[in-house]
Amino acid sequence: MLEKLKYPALRDAYDIMARASAVPLWEIYDRLVSDQPAVHGAPHLWHYAQMRPLLMDAGTRISATEAERRVIALKNPGLDRPGIAQTLFAGLQLVMPGEIATAHRHSQGAIRFVLESTGGYTAVNGERCEMRRGDLITTPSWAWHDHENTGAGPLVWLDGLDVPLVNFFGAKFAEDHPQDQQPIDRQPDDSASRWGAGLRPFHGQHATPASPVLSYPYATTRAALERVASSDAPDAHHGWKMIYTNPLDGGHILPTIAAFLQMLPAGFRTRPWRTTEATVFAVVEGSGTARIGDAEWTFTESDVFVAPNWTWIALEAHTDCVIFSFSDRSAQERLGIWRAEEN
Ligand code: 1HN
Question: Rounded to an integer, what distance in angstroms lies between the CA atom of residue 220 and that of residue 224?
Fold first, then answer.
């Protein structure tokens, strides 16, 4: 087990420790604590033009029912486990016209960011959340959810889940709903009306750390960003960037996952920044160049790319850009370990 000992004269003591299921800490680490984080995984970009045909092919060869979820997972080439980053799962999910993905719930929290839609919804806790391109829908831990395509064309979205984190903790539970589709007992926009209109219910409380608002429509978020952009100068590191929030405390939408929407004007180059969080970006509008660590790619609409933890990020907009992103920042902030550096 231990090779190349720093203190070979202690080998006899180490052998006795090993038989006691113990190891000398001074032998296993170079330094007891490292001064900089290790980077987990590689920067990577998935072009939608390459991924879409794979999805559509899967759409003809396996049904949503057979697959349970017809998701093509985006696997980070620098990690051995599935996952787009050490802490995050991301995948592209396809539901074909007339198909449903049956109702279940699990301890993993999820977000969905819609890429293609001619009509469809995700039902969460009895509420139908309409899915249009650019809409963000949350599925908090243990919330019932099912999906349906009610349109004539494919329904595709980016799934983001805290699967690796929940697995790491060993807190993974799941349950199928007794019905294929959960009963709908709430009006559309119920959660946004109760919690997201600058009001909250006079009676009653919201019990979980996740945002009670389930849907953040693009029509609303884009208009907000556009208005801010029309009056503020763009930030040197982020352009115009806003955080999807839980209206109850101004915090992130899920206890594990934070989400962001940013706008960059044509020709704008951000200065480099890095944080301890792993971030997944999805391009909503426009095209540009992303420089993530040593990688550099041009991106266009619906492309997805990942910046691993503690890796420099710089974005350049060729045209006006709107970029969605999500990360594990929410979990890190709650644990008090999140850090950022700007260049
Ligand atoms: C899941 O339940 C969904 O409900 C999508 O749509 C992706 C990836 C891993 C584990 C569960 C969904 C998932 C998932």
Answer: 6
State whether the beta carbon of 159 lies less than 6 angstroms from ligand 1: yes
Q: Is 71 helix (H, G, I), strand (E, B) or coil?
A: strand
- In this predicted model, what pLDDT tens digit does every residue of 60-79 receive, in sequence order? 999 999 999 999 999 999 99
Q: Give the atom of ligand 1 at the shortest distance from the alpha carbon of 112.
A: 6
Contact criterion met (CB below 8 Å) for 256 and 211: no
CB crowding 46-85: b at 16 or more within 10 Å, else e: bebeebbeebeebbeeeebeeeeebbbbbbbeebeeebbb
pLDDT under 70 in the chain at which residues?
A: 1-2
How many whole angstroms from 102 Cα to the centroid of ligand 1? Answer: 11
pTM: predicted TM-score of the whole model, two decimal places? 0.97
Expressed as residue numbers, the domain containing 167 is 44-342
Any idea what the CATH number is for the domain that residue 104 is in?
A: 2.60.120.10
